[in-house]
# Entry
Amino acid sequence: MNQNPTQPTQLLAAGSRRERFLQWITPIRWQVLGLILLTAIIYAPVLRFEMLNWDDNWYLTWNDLIKSWHPANLYRIMTEPVARNFAPVTIGSFLVEHTLWGLWPGGYHATNVLIHMINGVLVLQLMRQLTNNGWMAWTVAALFLVHPVQVESVAWVSSRKTVLSTTWTLASCLCWMKVNRTNRDEGWGILWLVIALLTKASAVTLPPIIVAYDYFIAKKKLSDSIARQAVPMFFCLMLVLTTMNAQVTIVGGIRGHLKFNKLEIFAIDSTLLWRYVSMLLVPQDLCVLYDPPTTGIELMIAAAIAGWVAVGIWMWKMRHSQPLLILAGISWLMLFFPVMNFFPITTLMNDRYLYLPCVPFFGVMLWLLDQGWQRTLRLMPSLRSSESILALITSTVAIGVMAWSTTNYLPVWKNPLSLWSYAIEKTPSLPMVHIQWATTLKDLDREEEALGVLQNILDERNPDDAEVTLIRGMMEEIRNPETSTSDPSPGNDRTEDVHHDEQPIK
# Structure
């Protein structure tokens, strides 16, 4: 009888992995279960949501790459950009799903929710690893999962690249952010980073964050920390060059801010970062597109810059006693850097830009809350017996308020009609919002209404030249459908011109 000499070793390895998993999950199994149930209850309605006419056509309906497992097609997935994004892992996930359930929207929405759940568990583990504070870790993870700014990333299928790249980014952080990490940890960290980069280019900001962790938390020499990131930075550079090579000049989207120089963009960004803070603290008037003021805001810019300088000085002074604060501040800035328009993109702000940056923000807010509570206890020691109860009440109220806001905002993303009718109410100043509304009406065979909306844009909304060209083309197509030569595919020049997603400009 033939025996496999490697079998005992394989069994031991499998047993060891099982034991490590049980050691990890057993102490936090109820916390994990709570996060999963909370997310499932809140996001269950998305299983009935439709595709949107906001990139979903590009990634799914018109995308032939997700419809075949032929080797030539797989090669194209690994080498070609889709909607000007080089994201083969994202497109590969759509290929698997198209094989399972075709273009049924519920399947894609369910996958986004599942990935969001996984991300919440990873946030829980990362916060436990960094803070050794179970209450803070669970509360941050729960807020990450239920906060209404996450609706865009979870309920919009095309934002798969955001939620999926976050999974690999968090996995990489778990490997790198260990004080006594091994070469094996770093190897896995590099692997997860590469997968994150192939999912969405914004993962390029991870190596500087790890350098900050090594320097401020692990107390390593800065030169050694940078040297350890040489390989990750190389992969990031390759991805940046590949992505830039995949881009073409963008003439669609929201482009008014592209006229500003880098100094002006920096000034505007300082105000937007404070607006993001307000959105996380008091999430109201959320929308698919925003039109923040960019002119006549000199006093606002001065106040915003002064505020961030004060925050930076405070964190720097606390770097020895509370090094996690400076790490949170650096992480916040670095995670925002790809969408701050230093490399021009076609929207100034979006909810999805907060998907991962909200984690360090929530951590800092809870730390401040805990510090305030500790000062109160020093003044009123008799309250110490109620500490656990008050912490539970605080978490429950914060999570409950955000979950309630999410359930109210979630239906906006149900279908194109609900999305763009809501957007017109919240951001009526943007011609692109009205163009998308007209597109929705046209798709619903309400051509006369669509023509009226398009004419109104020309008369009253001050569209730019590219938008005027698009509008006139749409009007001609509605009036003379038999002469239309539009081709609903990624090669259609007219449709490419209005693609809005975050793309660098050559």
